[in-house]
Amino acid sequence: MDFKGSDTIPGPRAEDHLPQSTQAAAKIVIVGGFGVGKTTMVGSVSEIKPLTTEETMTEAGVGVDDNYGSETKTATTVAMDFGRIRITEQLVLYLFGTPGQERFWFLWNGLFEGALGAVVLLDTRRLEVSFDVMGRLEERGVPFVVAVNTFPDGPRYPVEDLRAALDLPPEVPIVECDARRRASSRDVLMTLMRFLHSLALSGSLT
After folding, report:
1. Fewer beta carbons under 10 A from the terminal one: N or C of the chain?
2. Helix residue ranges per DSSP H, the chain
3. Phi, psi at 50, each rounded to 5°
């Protein structure tokens, strides 16, 4: 078949090619409840154009999806978000954002498969949503850090108060972030990588 003109199938963009210096890659999942900023984080930090599976929200979700704090949100992730970021010249992270609505959580097991670690995005207006999220990670043995996404109307709590409310052990990092800012999202990922490194040195990471 002869592909010419407008029928030509475009190849990957130059900036999407994996750097030749890459020696290792790791899968990271970004999880959290509905509307906490997972798609925003993947989009802000990815060095390639992120893949998203957002669909327009419809009346079918009324009374089913908890959109408290996200009443103006018009689209939602129904499968996953995907991005990529180079941490060093040798190490690349593949980022997978999970759907936040509970009716899509059955997809999480596949996304958790092979994940080295996770970022739990937290909305302080809805702390209770995080318990199920962290419980699923613990069941799968996926280490995680907690990133508190700062919303203008979200209450601010001391880290130790959050740790107590979430029943987290002292070694699990809790950091604040602004998922809209690339530098802030990258700092969260670096916190996760340092945490995973410490686990590996202690023999806790298998």
Report:
1. N
2. 38-45, 108-112, 129-140, 159-166, 182-202
3. -70, 150
* DSSP annotation of 185: H
Rounded Cα distance, 182 and 44, in Å: 5
Model confidence pLDDT, tens digit, residues 64-119: 445 555 454 445 544 579 999 998 888 999 999 988 666 556 677 778 899 999 99
Interior CA angle at 184 toward 180 and 76, to 5°? 35
Q: Look at residue 93 and give its three-state secondary structure.
A: strand
Record the pTM. 0.79
Q: How many CB atoms lie within 10 A of CB 176?
A: 17
Burial of 173 (0-12, 13-18, 19+ CB in 10 A): middle
Residue 61, number of CB atoms within 10 A of its CB:
14
Looking at the DSSP bridge assignments, the partners of residue 117 are 28
